[in-house]
Specification:
Layout (H helix, E strand, L loop, with lengths): L5 E8 L6 H9 L17 E7 L2 E7 L9 H15 L3 E7 L6 H13 L3 E6 L8 H13 L5 E3 L8 H5 L1
Parallel strand pairs: 1-3, 1-4, 4-5, 5-6
Antiparallel strand pairs: 2-3
Length: about 170
Amino acid sequence: MNYETKSGFVAIVGRANVGKSSLLNAMIGEKIAIVSDKPQTTRTRITGVITRDAVQLAFIDTPGMHRPRNSLSEYMVKQVTESVGDVDAAVLVVEAGVPLGDIENQLIQNFAQRKLPAVAVINKMDTVQDKSVILSQIAALSQLYSFDHIYPLSAKSGEGVEDFIK
């Protein structure tokens, strides 16, 4: 028998409170990461593993990227940048209806420097009434980086998560 197994590490990155931990929990099907409305709940990397057929991916939930204001926040930003340097691919999570900014640009520059394969997730799409806003975000993300795919979804309701996992 000839089995070809594929595996890899994938960092989940984005600014604070865009739903990175919620996405990890939705993908795994269990609450392994703390979810809170309070920014900076995730302070260290949390790993969740998905195995499907001959593919195993370890997703690493990272602290929210932000401008550091003290030694703890510097440590958390370092966790994000180190995670991007240690993985085979990345997932950039942005919030539906929130304009892209310096934080997303910084993360995307990090992807580009490493020639890192990446996908983007527009999370919380269930909170946006005007879906043309999501189309605008897809266009903006497409101009910033050659993402392999851009997925609008809602980690909270689960809408679109299964398509993302495939």
